[in-house]
Write a structure and sequence with these properties.
Layout lengths: L62 E2 L15 E2 L5 H4 L6 E9 L10 E4 L7 E2 L2 E9 L2 E9 L5 E10 L5 E10 L2 E12 L9 E2 L4 E5 L5 E8 L2 E7 L10 E5 L7 E6 L7 E7 L2 E6 L3 E6 L7 E6 L6 E8 L2 E8 L2 E6 L7 E6 L13 E5 L2 E6 L3 E6 L7 E6 L6 E9 L2 E8 L6 E5 L7 E6 L9 E5 L2 E5 L5 E5 L7 E6 L17 E5 L5 E6 L3 E6 L2
Antiparallel strand pairs: 1-2, 3-4, 3-10, 4-5, 5-6, 6-7, 7-8, 8-9, 9-10, 11-36, 12-39, 13-14, 14-15, 15-16, 17-18, 18-19, 19-20, 21-22, 22-23, 23-24, 25-26, 26-27, 27-28, 29-30, 30-31, 31-32, 33-34, 34-35, 35-36, 37-38, 38-39
C-alpha cells in the first residue's frame, strides 16, 4: 500500500506487505482459444515506457467553470456546467456500491490519485476514501458528492464530483473540482468504475479453485508466511480509530479445514505488515518495534523472543530471508537493514544501507528480492534498484530502472533463456506488470507488460518456474504463463473481491495483498476482508 500523502483527500496509508488437487479443466480460461506461451529464445525488442497512467482523454462533456487559482468553495453546484450531460442515463446508475474513480485533470497532466466512493444501500451516508460525504446527492435530479480531508498540518482539501453520464454498465462519468484551503487547485473529468466483476469474467477460471477460507478478526490482514504446516497471517491498523493488528496463526495441515491456533497482539504496536521464517524463528516486520522474533519450535504457539535492532526501533515495513541474511526494509528512517542470522535467534546487525536522491527525498525501500547474489530493491520513487550485497558494509548499486511518477513496489526475478528477467509492479492507480531484462543492470530494458483496469493496483507477486502469481488487489489472484516473458499470458484467475464483504473500504489498496506459493501444492493468499484464502497450485 502506498506510503505517501495523496492529494484529493487520500489518507496517509502505509503500504502493507511483502512478496508475496489441480484441475485440468481449462474451459473459460482468460485466453481461451489462443496458443499457449512457447519457450523464449532470449531475443527481445525494448518497448516504450508509458508510465502507469495513460491519458484516455476527456471522460465527460462537462466542466467546473472557474479557472484554477480562484478563491472559491468547490461545493457549489451552480459552478458545474452539466448542460451537455445525459441525465436520463444517470438515473439508471447504481446508487450504492463501491466505485474507484480515475481522475483526469483538464491539464492532461498525470493525476495525483483517485477517489474511492462508497455508497451504502438504504440511503446512509457514504464516504470518499475514509472521509464521510459532506454533501451526498444522488437521485433522479443528478449526482453531486463532496468530501473534505484535513491533513495533519491542517490543510483542508475539498473534493466535489458531479455525475454526467453512464457510458457503460457499472461506470459513471462526470467532472470534479478540488479546492485546497478555499482555492481551486485542480479540476477535470472522472470515470468511476464500480468494483464488481469486470470484462465479463466469472468468479474463477483456468482451474484456480478455492480450497478453504478462514476469517481473520485481528485488524486489516495483509500478509502470510507458511511453514511447518502453519500459516502466519499478519495484520495492520489502518487508522487509530480502527482495530489494531498483530499475528493470527492457523494450522493448515488439513488445507480444506484450517484450524485457528493463536492470536497475538502487543499494546502500542498494532501495525504488523510482513512475516518470514528461518528454522524455528519467525520474523515479523512492525511499525513500532522494528523486527520482532518469535520462537515457533511449537508452530501453533509462537512465543516472544525479542525485537531488533536495539535502540530506537525503525518502522520496518517488509523483510525477507536469503540464506543467513535477513533484509528488512524500513520506511522511517528510510534504510535497508541487513542482519546476519547464522544463529536465527540472535540476529547480528551488519549495516543500515541508505539510497538517496536529491530529487526524491521522500523515497524509501518498500520491498526487496534476492536472486543469484543480487539484491533487487523496490525503492518507491527512486526506482527499481539492482544492488550487489556481497559485502554488506559496501552494498553497491549496479543499476536502476526509473520512469515518470514511479512508485516501485514489488518484484520477482528469474532466468529465462540465459537472461535475467525481473517482473516488477508499482502500486497506484494504473499500476501494472512490467517485464524487465536486468541481465546488464547498467542497461535495464523494458521488454513486456500486462495491464488490467486502470482503477486497480498490483500488490505483490511470486514466480514459480514459468508461472507468475500476482496479488492484484480488487482484481484478485492472477496467474500468468511467462515461459515467453515478453508476452505474459494470463492463464487463470480468482476474483476474491466482493463489495458486500464485511469491512470493505473505498480505497484502491484493498483486496488480495499477501501471497505465498511454498511448493506444497497450494497457494496461500490474504484478502483484506475475507482473510486467509487457500487455492490449489496450478
Amino acid at each position: 500500500m502506498r506510503c505517501l500523502p495523496r492529494c484529493l483527500g487520500m489518507l496517509l496509508l502505509s503500504c502493507p506487505v511483502l512478496l508475496t488437487a489441480c484441475s485440468d479443466d481449462s474451459k473459460g480460461s482468460p485466453d481461451a482459444g489462443t496458443p499457449p506461451a512457447v519457450a523464449w529464445d532470449g531475443t527481445s525488442t525494448p518497448i516504450e515506457e508509458k508510465g502507469d497512467w495513460i491519458d484516455r482523454g476527456v471522460f465527460a462533456p462537462c466542466e467546473f467553470t472557474p479557472p484554477l487559482g480562484t478563491e472559491i468553495d468547490c461545493d457549489t453546484p451552480a459552478l458545474f456546467n452539466l448542460s451537455q450531460c445525459n441525465p436520463s442515463a444517470l438515473r439508471t446508475a447504481s446508487r450504492h456500491g463501491i466505485y474507484q474513480t480515475e481522475l483526469r485533470p483538464d491539464t492532461g497532466e498525470y493525476p495525483w490519485g483517485g477517489a474511492g466512493l462508497q455508497l451504502p444501500e438504504g440511503g446512509g451516508t457514504g464516504t470518499s476514501n475514509f472521509d464521510r460525504f459532506t454533501r451526498q446527492q444522488f437521485d433522479d435530479q443528478g449526482m453531486l458528492l463532496t468530501s473534505v480531508f484535513t491533513t495533519p498540518r491542517g490543510v483542508a482539501i475539498k473534493t466535489a464530483l458531479a455525475g454526467c453520464d453512464v457510458p457503460e454498465p457499472h461506470h459513471i462519468t462526470g467532472c470534479y473540482a478540488v479546492c485546497t484551503n478555499g482555492v481551486l487547485t485542480e479540476k477535470g473529468t472522472f470515470d468511476a468504475d464500480r468494483l464488481v466483476l469486470s470484462r465479463g469474467e466469472a468468479e474463477s477460471s483456468g482451474g484456480l479453485n478455492l480450497v478453504s477460507e478462514s476469517a481473520v478478526d485481528l485488524g486489516f490482514p495483509v500478509d502470510v508466511y507458511v511453514t511447518k504446516n502453519h500459516a502466519y497471517v499478519v495484520s495492520i491498523q489502518l487508522k487509530p480509530d480502527m482495530p489494531a493488528g498483530g499475528l493470527t496463526v492457523f494450522d493448515v495441515s488439513d488445507r480444506d479445514h484450517p484450524v485457528l491456533k493463536k492470536v497475538i497482539s502487543l499494546p502500542g504496536d498494532g501495525y504488523w505488515n510482513a512475516a518470514w521464517a528461518k528454522d524455528d524463528v519467525l520474523y515479523v516486520a512492525t511499525k513500532a518495534s522494528g523486527v520482532i522474533l518469535y520462537d515457533i519450535s511449537n508452530p501453533g504457539d509462537p512465543t516472544y523472543i525479542r525485537s531488533v535492532p536495539s535502540g530506537a526501533p525503525p518502522n520496518v515495513h517488509t523483510l525477507h530471508v536469503d540464506g543467513n541474511r535477513l533484509y528488512a526494509m524500513a520506511l522511517r528512517p528510510a534504510q535497508t537493514i541487513i542482519f546476519d542470522i547464522t544463529s536465527p535467534r540472535d540476529p547480528v546487525l551488519l549495516n543500515r544501507v541508505v539510497f538517496s536522491s536529491e530529487e526524491f527525498v521522500t523515497s524509501y525501500p518498500h520491498d526487496s528480492f534476492s536472486y543469484e547474489g543480487r539484491l533487487y530493491i523496490n525503492h518507491t520513487d527512486i526506482g527499481f534498484l539492482v544492488t550487489d550485497p556481497s559485502d554488506p558494509m559496501q552494498v553497491k548499486e549496479l543499476g536502476k530502472y526509473h520512469y515518470n511518477r514511479q512508485y516501485s513496489h514489488a518484484s520477482a526475478v528469474g532466468t529465462f533463456a540465459g537472461r535475467t528477467i525481473a517482473f516488477e509492479g508499482s502500486e497506484q492507480e494504473g499500476a501494472h506488470l512490467r517485464v524487465l531484462d536486468v541481465t546488464d543492470p547498467a542497461n535495464i530494458q523494458l521488454i513486456g507488460e500486462h495491464r488490467l483496469r486502470p482503477t486497480t493496483s498490483i500488490h505483490n507477486m511470486i514466480l514459480k518456474g514459468t508461472k507468475l502469481y500476482v496479488a492484484w488487489y480488487q482484481d484478485g489472484v492472477r496467474v500468468f504463463d511467462v515461459a515467453n516473458p515478453t508476452l505474459p499470458k494470463e492463464i487463470a484467475y480468482f476474483n476474491a473481491y466482493r463489495e458486500t464483504d464485511p469491512n470493505r473500504l473505498a480505497i484502491v489498496y484493498e483486496g488480495v495483498m499477501g501471497m505465498r506459493v511454498p511448493g506444497d501444492g497450494y497457494v496461500y493468499a490474504v484478502d483484506t476482508s475475507r482473510g486467509l484464502l487457500i487455492f490449489n497450485e496450478l
